[in-house]
Each structure stands twice: as C-alpha cells, then as structure tokens.
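hi! just following up on the protien thing from before. the input was this:
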Amino acid sequence: MAGHSQFKNIMHKKGAADARRSKVFGKLAREITVAAKTGMPDPKMNPRLRLAIQNARAENMPKDNIERAIKKAQGGDADTFEEIRYEGYGPGGIAIIVETLTDNRNRTASAVRAAFTKHGGALGETGSVSFMFDRVGEIAFPAGAGSADAVMEAAIEAGADDVQSSDEEHVIVCAFGAIGEVSEALAERLGEATSVKVVWKPQTLTPVDDERAETLFKLIAQLEDDDDVQAVFGNFEISDAAMERLSAA
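and the predicted 3d structure came back as:
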C-alpha cells in the first residue's frame, strides 16, 4: 500500500473517536477563519472558504461551528495565522512535508523539529524535499457516487488528470489551479464530494520496511496531533502485511 490515506485509516481506528473529532473540528475551524479573513466572508465569492466549508461538512462539523469560525474572522480580535511549510526526512529517508497554520512560528517550529528528532528524522530547509512532489488538487467521492467507469468519464469531461477507484471511494486528481472548476463540474455529475483539497502528491514512492514503518507512523501521528499542523504528506510505500500488523497493534 502506498501513501498517506492508508495511514489515516489506521489512525482513525486506533484513536478515540471523540478526541479525534474535536481535534479535526479545531483544525477545520482554523482553516475556515483564515480563508474568511484573507478573502470575502461569502463562500460564493471565496473559493478557498467554499472548499473549507465543504470539507467541514464532510466531517459532520456542526453548522454553528462553521458560522462561528466565519464570524471570528470578521472580529477585530481574531488571531493572525501564518501559513508555514516545513520539509524534512523521516526514518528510512522518507521525504515529508508538513503544512501548518500558526499564530506563533517559534512554537510551531520547535514542535515540528522535536518530532523529527525524536523519531530519527531531520528537519530541512524549505524546498529540500518539495521538488519530489507535485502540488495538485484531490477530490474524493464515496464509492456510491457511481461505477469506476462512470466516475472516470465524469472526471475526463471535467478536465481531471487521474482517477483511483476502490471499494471505499473514488479519488480524482486535477491540476492545482483547476480544483475549483473541476470540483464544481464533478459535483453536477456525481453529487457532493466527501473532500476537496490541495495536496502534495509524491512523484515516486520510497519502500519502507516493517521496523521503520512503525517509527514513521509514530512521527506522522505526533505531527498530526499538533494543533498547528494542518496536513502531513510523505513519499512512503508500505507492504500490505506491514499495514495489517500496524492496524492490529
């Protein structure tokens, strides 16, 4: 198995549902506030805010929470957040990108660096690993949105670049700059997406053995547990057997 989605599945099973939900809602609210503050507070006029709200709804975030996050952006006392990207190498030489929204860059840098160091990794300079990834849009639909062939046809007509279908979902990849246009076209054909986001897609994958896989997952888990961290991406590939063992642990 390859990529970060499998890691997500494992962590969702292992983590306490309520604690995870609270953590996710907090990060979604922060993104909504930043999106509303940097653009128009109306999602119809603000593509970033529209995507943030869509992803919040996909996580069943209450409407009141969403509206409160938007109103917070309009208040004079709203926190000022910076978008900062960290890059480095994890166990086994895995390239890792960490995206954050923070109101204290010193605190966030210290926490990210500590996580890398604790798990045998090393934080690098900006640009040290991002050249190994492509910045793309990723749009996910539930399996029930249609057959693999139907989704593929809809994706091609919408201008997407790739589709990966499984028993659980359809994941459609498009150019970074086309994510708004493609997601709207797909919604007309397939219904509401479960997530619409911009991701760092690795150009090639690096195999990780069982021992390093466990350490790598601990590193990613520690990073994602930080309130300032919005997303973590890596270019790792882990065997199905290792995934099963980690899932059962």
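The first strand starts at residue 82 and ends at 89.
The longest helix spans residues 17-38.
cheers
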